[in-house]
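FAQ: What does a multi-protein file look like?

Like this. Sequence, then tokens, then the next protein.
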Amino acid sequence: MTEILIKRLSKNIPLPKYETDGSSGMDISADVDDSIEIKPGKSEIIPTGLAVSIPKNFEIQIRPRSGLAAKNQISVLNTPGTIDADYRGELKVILINLGNNSFVVEKGLRIAQMVLCPIIKANIKEVETLENTKPVSYTHLRAHETGRKLVCRRMLEKKKGGGGGGGGGGG
């Protein structure tokens, strides 16, 4: 397991934690002195009261909580938000209200989840030409409901000879 160093800027906020053994992300909470109202169609930057230090070649992704999204249409605006390994400032989350009703963020509300992810650095090489894209086959799945029976039919279209791209099969 990889170690994340966390500094609480506010002692009134819980440390992030995995809610279950199978959780990929750790919930993080709002650290606000006064409630913040997010009006429909608007976004607000919500402080967490946390700063982190993670190992080189890792990032933390800030992702929406599915419960907030499903029940209140609240999401993370720049999802996933990236926390780089060399960032030491307070973690803040940009929440957006995609719903029709105002949403109020209170101190301690679990607003997002953070996921630790390894990163792979690329070596960029400029070239004058690139290899052409190879022809591909497309698989379409169609589902038809007949009474109680769900019938799935698979159609495979293959590019033939020197002809054009795929038509047929419509949708």
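And here is the next protein:
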Amino acid sequence: MLKKIWYHLEEFILLPILVFLVCLIFVQVILRFVFSSSLTWAEELARYLFVWLMWFGVSYAARNRTHLRVTMVRDKFPVKISETIELIVTIVWLLFGIWVAYKGIQMVQSIMQYKQVSAALQLPMQYAYAGVPLGAGLMCLRLIENMYHDYVVPLIKHEKISPPTDKEAQF
């Protein structure tokens, strides 16, 4: 059960946000163009929900390995070199994600310190921007998970499957 929740965590977060966001914007458009009236807070809430949607979408794409990539140069190298390039790129991406999460935490702490609230909703702004460090942190966990499956699991399987050589059997 926990494995299923972990694997689908982004969907559990993204789907309700997306459905609510689409409904909210639809209602806002109908109210504005049909009734010449609008909700004062709808656009602000949609903007904050979009921040959460984007950052958890980044994590979702990292988990599924569906981020846009330019692989033309990497593909020109032999397999071993390509794998090394891929590992280096993932490590750089992970370091960038850690930096974004760290700066996001600093931003949220700064907003909390000054007790900023949104204009229309009077929502504490730390809730609006908490999606940045949470999404970046989850993306980092997904990248670590991908590296584990790509580089550690094959080593473990290789150790279990390969029989010892004659020299190893003697010791």
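Q: Is there any per-entry metadata?
A: Some entries carry free-text notes. For the entry above: The chain has seven helices and no strands.
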